[in-house]
Amino acid sequence: MALEAWFMDDSNEDQRLPHHLNPNEPVSLDYLSELGVLYWKLNPENYENDTKLGKIREARGYDYMDLLDLCPEKVSNYEEKLKNFFTEHIHKDEEIRYCLAGSGYFDVRDKDDRWIRIWMKPGDLIVLPAGIYHRFTLDTTNYIKLMRLFVGEPVWTPYNRPQEDHPVRKSYIKGLTHKFGETIEAHCE
Question: Quick one: where is this thing mainly located (predicted)?
Answer without folding.
Answer: membrane
